[in-house]
Amino acid sequence: MMEVRFEKGTTMGWFIFLVLVVGAVAAFKYRVPLLAKLTGQPQQRIQRAIDRRKGK
What we know:
This protein is mainly alpha-helical.
């Protein structure tokens, strides 16, 4: 049987990677409300701008 050994920092590295991936997915999913808050513009305006870019 093979023995799998982990270095001391490997678990923490994977945890940080997982947090970054989950954060990126959440930011993408909630991009319209986040952009509206950051720019101070209405969500409808942000959504229209995103939809226009998708149409090109």
